Amino acid sequence: PPELSILNNCSPSQLEGLCSFLQLSTCPEPLLVRFCSWLLALTPDLSYTSAAILAEQLFLRRVLSLTQPPSRHLMAALTSFCSKYSHPFCRVLVAAVLQEPGEGAEQTKLMCELVEECLEPHSVQLLLSQALEVPLSEKLLPVLQAVLGRQEVLPPELLDLLVLTLCQQAPAFTTSLNYAKLVMAVLTAYQSQVS
Predict the structure, then answer these.
(1) CA 59 – CA 29 distance, rounded (Å)
(2) What's 135's DSSP letter?
(3) Sequence-ordered list of residues with C-beta below 8 angstroms from that of 83, at least 6 positions apart, any chain
(4) Nearest-10 crossing angle of helices 12-22, 48-55
(5) Domain map of the chain by residue range?
(6) What is the C-alpha to C-alpha distance for residues 71 and 69, in angstroms, rounded to an integer?
(7) Which residues does the UniProt record annotate as the domain Fanconi Anaemia group E protein C-terminal (predicted)?
(8) Backbone angles phi, psi at 42, to 5 degrees
(9) At a CB cut-off of 8 Å and minimum separation 6, what does 22 contact?
């Protein structure tokens, strides 16, 4: 709808107010899918800041409160939004999920699925750098495994940070099968760069 062009003309505080007024954080999921498809068609594209605000308003509460696999509507909306705005999405949502205490099994599965199917290579690298900023946990290991499964060429400094993190935090994971799989994946994928 032409009215959506207002999203490009709002200040960040106005956009947050508009999202609140429209109750986007709690709108039904089928409407969320439609709204995200409208966002994809919007020209010009949203600014980074606007996309980050919308990522937070549309998805943060929904993703953090998952206790079962996301519905197909929520998955479609996430995939749609990520296809165009994966960088602000990672900055907002991935960071929040990684810092959330507790197991977060559904959030972990969702992050793995997004890494495997939706995120652009530069966003995968951003996600990896964000993941390495927090202490490793069992929740985080499958996400790192999914990143390595993409077989992206990592910048040397990011690969060094990954290897250093795995080495430093090894004592905490002496009995972890996920940790062992992750180390094997690193050694297999980056054999020539890891000594």
Answers:
(1) 10
(2) -
(3) 40, 118
(4) 30
(5) 2-140
(6) 6
(7) 1-194
(8) -65, 135
(9) none
User: What residue type is 153 in one-letter code?
Assistant: V
The pair of structure tokens assigned to 76 is 């479609």
Q: Which residue stretches of the chain are H helix?
A: 12-22, 29-41, 48-55, 61-64, 72-89, 95-99, 105-117, 121-131, 141-149, 156-168, 177-189
pTM for the complete prediction?
Answer: 0.84
Indicate the Cα dihedral angle 187, 188, 189, 195, nearest 10°.
Answer: 30
Q: Render pLDDT for 118-145 as a digit per residue (tens, 0 to 9).
A: 888 888 888 899 888 888 888 889 989 9
Backbone angles phi and psi of 43, in degrees to 5 = -130, 135
pLDDT (tens digit per residue) in 26-75: 999 999 999 999 999 888 999 999 999 999 999 999 999 999 999 999 99
